[in-house]
Design a protein that fits this description.
homodimer, alpha/beta, Aspartate Aminotransferase, domain 1, Aspartate Aminotransferase, domain 2, 7-stranded mixed β-sheet, globular, pyridine nucleotide biosynthesis (chains A, B)
Amino acid sequence: MTAQDTITRADTIKMDGADPIAHLRDRFALPEGDIYLDGNSLGALPHGVMERLEVAVKDEWGNGLIRSWNDADWYPAPQRAGTAIARILGADDDEVIVCDSISVNLFKLLVGALRMRKDRKIIVSEIGNFPTDVYINQEVADIMGCELRCVMPEEVESAIDDAGIDLALVQLTHVHYKSGRIYDMAGITKLAQDLGALVIWDLAHSAGCLPVQLNACNADFAVGCGYKYLNGGPGAPAFVFVARRHFDAMNQPLRGWHGHAEPFAFTQDYKPHPTIDQMLTGTASQLATLALEKAMEVFADVDMTVLRQKNMALGDLFIALVEQELDGMGFGLASPRDAERRGSQVSLTHENGYAIMQAVIARGVVGDFRAPDILRFGFAAPYVRYVDIWDAVAHLREVMETGEWRRPEFNEKRAVT
Amino acid sequence: MTAQDTITRADTIKMDGADPIAHLRDRFALPEGDIYLDGNSLGALPHGVMERLEVAVKDEWGNGLIRSWNDADWYPAPQRAGTAIARILGADDDEVIVCDSISVNLFKLLVGALRMRKDRKIIVSEIGNFPTDVYINQEVADIMGCELRCVMPEEVESAIDDAGIDLALVQLTHVHYKSGRIYDMAGITKLAQDLGALVIWDLAHSAGCLPVQLNACNADFAVGCGYKYLNGGPGAPAFVFVARRHFDAMNQPLRGWHGHAEPFAFTQDYKPHPTIDQMLTGTASQLATLALEKAMEVFADVDMTVLRQKNMALGDLFIALVEQELDGMGFGLASPRDAERRGSQVSLTHENGYAIMQAVIARGVVGDFRAPDILRFGFAAPYVRYVDIWDAVAHLREVMETGEWRRPEFNEKRAVT
């Protein structure tokens, strides 16, 4: 820092020099010249994934064909990928499995958990939760004859209290997809469990960026995403966590043959597998599962508390630079200022947010936009550098100063924002 | 044929010479020396799929990153792959979409269809239907307060009659996974519809081997498999068909954001997309979907009636050779002898079926085993030759004559049969 506490580009280069996990960046194939701040939406490509897919396609599928379910160990791939994920979530190796999408897994958990609390009728969730979570919550509430109470984030604890012994379930997204705000997992879990209820956490924006401690928090259930901070590839399969103490009581409704105790007995009566395998439904895409399994090697030797320190520092730097460089340009802060209360992203508001985001993307600074006015910038600590934050804010400044964002091409809506 | 009507290997080579679709075999990367008769379980690798995945991984994911949802047209991949499949199923281009697994899609259709027939309480299905179908049928019947009546195949029509105006749904697998027996799609559909009911067909063993005529049969709904005769790769995503006349009334329960009318508005209220897109739930694996889309190019110029003639002829040849070469060795025929009533596979029974199958697989003749005593041989017409049938039966004969199947290693159970 200079005497005036102004942050310079040279300062950020120094920060990179002192970064204990700077070497992780070499594990990714990143596009030349871009600054990628959207790992919270689609993680970057880890080296080795393409090679793994070549073996999977040419040797295992092409030559091994059906034999590869045994000979290439395809069959236990969902369990292996699950174990790799369990290790960065504070879960036991056999409590996580990879399958389906978050939406589908959430449906399984919601129905299964409500069946464990048959005499209770209230589900508490958040207004502003990720849309899929709300849609699935509402649908399951209707099917199961329950009441879904969506409340403002600051009202969650009192809504739990109000529900009392009628509370069946709490379903929350740990880190909010727009703001990055973090819920107190341990506190809310205890509050709900003290009333005899269960809690389902959506870890879409937590897994791979926070040292989640599922078992230390006594968590019941969780789902999460393979394609964000876990870098499993576009639309990678999701994961699902069930605390071992619930294996026997869980009775999930998407009963497919892969969740059966003896899938290859081909019996007509469903008997759920006694382990986490009971959460499986149909046959999983091997290409997708093996890519995610390979991508998880990035985390094999990473201390998640060190990684977390870095993404908090990256976020703090971003906020400081936005205030230093973009003052008076109409940006607001939509994320908690306190890094401890924020995931690995910082969201800004701006009335021209959509066009501004398109303009910086055209310059190779890739974040994303969430309606109505949110510019999201994600700081995947394994590959984002401190100097990238400096350069990103410099581009934002230029886009604003030049009025570049007003160009018609940046104001055209695209299929995917 | 010789004077005694004995079929010789030379005869089968002549049949290959006269095969109008023999050239399709060049579209696949097949393992040297093997005879692959398990395309009904996992289709072979089409040339071009590996190259498509390389572009998808290195260029689109690695370099394009999140931008590829727009720039590489990832977003409409489920629709494009669906259109390619629709064209070989006698459906309109916009009535089929690729997503999730058969089990998950069946759940969507069953609940959705029952909601269209709220006053009716009976579902008719088959004893011996593929296990996943039975499990999901039973689960949905329980959730929706309906009665599932599973009957023997020959009793399906009378069970439909018996249910009368209480009949809500019929759910059948068009071609049976073990025997290959084909249901009369047009006849059963009409029978059920005449009572005001709906029908859901599972096309797992039909798509890519029969000239399915969904709209000519006035079909309501169907699901099917991407990894068998469509050659989409291990665990490839499934497809789902909804007749356009049902788009408005369908109300499927796995409400994810990709099925929303405006996914990127991120609203809290679910509004189903007015098209086939409403069947989507979460984000699909792009790698899996793009591989299936590429694989479908195999069928782009194929006349399905010509392909069907060939797989019927391959099956007839197999049965004739089994009778000629394996007489008195304990094999029984578990498939219809009449090719018109049989899908693209022939199943044999044998009390030592498991070990015999392992022994021929060790010789490179790859079929599969289904408990308790079924040896399945699938004849994927795009890449199976007539001479392969001769050679496969010759290996079976040698395995029996030498007693090779008695070896301990062929009698050990493996994870996946």
